[in-house]
Amino acid sequence: MRLRDTGFGAAPLTRTMPPAHPFDTSYLRDAGDDDKLKEECGIFGVIGVAEAANFVALGLHALQHRGQEAGGIVTHHPELGFQSARRFGYVRDNFTSQAVMETLKGPLSIGHVRYSTAGSKGQTAIRDVQPFFGEFAMGGAAIAHNGNITNANALRRELIERGSIFQSSSDSECIIHLMARSLQRNIPERMEDALRRVEGAFSVVAMTRTKLIGVRDPLGVRPLVLGQVGDGWVLSSETCALDIIGAEFIREIAPGEMVVITSKGVESHFPFRPRKPRFCIFEHVYFSRPDSILGGRSVYETREAIGRELAKESPVDADLVCPVPDSGTPAAIGYSLESGIPYAMGIIRNQYMGRTFIEPTEQIRNMGVRLKLNVNRALIQGKRVILVDDSVVRGTTSRKIKEMILDAGAKEVHFRIASPPTAWPCFYGVDTPQREKLLAATMSEDEMRDHLQVDSLRFISLDGLYRAVGEARGRDPNQPQYCDACFSGEYPVEPSDQIESGFEMKPAAE
After folding, report:
1. Which of 41, 174, 280, 486 is catalytic?
2. Which pTM was predicted?
3. Which of 65, 195, 278, 298 is the most buried (most CB within 10 A)?
4. Which CATH number fits domain 294-491: 3.40.1280.10, 3.40.50.2020, 3.30.2400.10, 3.40.50.300?
């Protein structure tokens, strides 16, 4: 079975190259988002519906917050075989045209949106855009992965020594090569065999000619949910993407579970050794959309509860509570409700920048944060302002926002952060600076306050965050714990590639 490609590049085939990146937004990464951790990707798959690619495009649009660099869709049609398209940029700019979508026929499709954490970045990296495709003895298969493989370098070296030829720099391609070398009799079993060799975090959607497959790693670090639309089935990173296509949320895929979906229904398998789940707590804080459901809890309500807890832990006399939009909004509302201090939109986010500056001048680049955020001067002037944000990574954007607030005439500026200090890099699917570039890795909370030059700065405690998400933090092996390594330095899976490259783990006594 040959893969018909409209810009895929994963196997020997006739193909046309994708168009050049329609606009360069690299300069915007330092315009209000450099203090944010970046999720690697979102995944979505559909089986059993006519024109499945249209459903996938809508689902990826709803998951765009999880990755804005590039996206891809693969389909299978009984007569046309596998088809695919991969593009740089937003889903809305690439997968809404009739010309593209007419090349993606069939009742079975998977898709992926990407923000790179492993592999190269930029216009030369179309080879790294997922889903990836492989041709096996029993037929073709495509795979899309959310997470990060922490032993990818070791696996790549081993596979290359055994004759594998890699076509991308993505860690996810290791899974395809491991599947190709497996001696198991069918693709789901080969995937199980491959994933047993993988360390780190992974949620996967994959497809064969007749099957849609979903897998979560034994720790369940990254989310994956199951839905139903008519007679068809859906796999998605988040429940918000089910809503856009009118699908019913059925349940979360359990940590360590593999589901194999065919026209006969859903089969569930547990191929991995059971482990205590360690879902990423930062999904509650920032990554997931506020209208999604995680672990039976509304993300919006959880973030509001975080704001309430923050107000209890770190009260301050002020006139207004203002969010740093948009991710700080639910926590700011919670802080306002708990403290009784009025909530106000003191900062307005420009939702429509981007294409305006196709060839930005140096002057425009230097405007930085002001391209995205503007202060509501009439509201702020003369006020003592509490700014609520979800996190501080490098601190550069926080400092620029503080300057904007003071320039607008604020009397005082107090930062309240809805997560603990980010002092350790994430190796499980999040784009994180090296540890020495994390503000909290080198400064105390008071030193960070002085560095940002604000009247006060307080982060929610890790215990307070656990209370807000409904779990008491402890070390009872029978009690669910989250992955909180970016705050605590306690990694549930040893990042072996990073240690080999010189990363120093937290000392046991620290």
Report:
1. 41
2. 0.88
3. 278
4. 3.40.50.2020
